[in-house]
Amino acid sequence: MTIGEAKVLITSEAFYPRKVELWRGEIASLEHVLLTDCSSNLPSGTEDLAAALDAAPDSFETVWTGPEDMALVEGSLLPRREAWSLSSTSPVSLMPNGPPS
After folding, report:
1. Does residue 3 fall inside a structural domain?
2. How many domains does one find in the chain?
3. Tens of pLDDT along 24-55?
């Protein structure tokens, strides 16, 4: 998470205090921790993922990425140009030349 400068982490409310809460402050880039399976008493500094999704707009504008932007592909963080060269069966769809004209 530190190498990729993660901004968002999604985990369960049960897992958070055991595995995340102790080192969360060490990741300076981490802006949001979204929790699944939430109770009514969320740990400080976390958000309920279901509530955040319910509050989100129904549509959004696509953000185009460049060849040096990082992409998470099957657990590996790669520059997008390298991710593009992976097998076409990869679950990630990337556009090597940006958006269509």
Report:
1. no
2. 2
3. 888 888 889 999 988 889 999 999 999 999 99
Q: Answer yes or no: do 25 and 48 share one domain.
A: yes
Which residue pairs, CB below 8 angstroms and at least 24 apart, start in 14-22?
16/43, 16/46, 17/43
Cut 0.70: pTM above it: no
Closest by CA to 6, choosing from 47, 34, 38, is 34
Q: Which domain holds residue 43?
A: 8-55
In a domain, 2, yes or no: no
C-alpha pair distances (Å), 92 with each of 35, 69, 73, 75: 24, 14, 7, 12
CA distance linking residue 9 with residue 21, whole number of Å:
11
**CA distance linking residue 47 with residue 36, whole number of Å:** 9
Is there a domain that residue 1 lies in? no
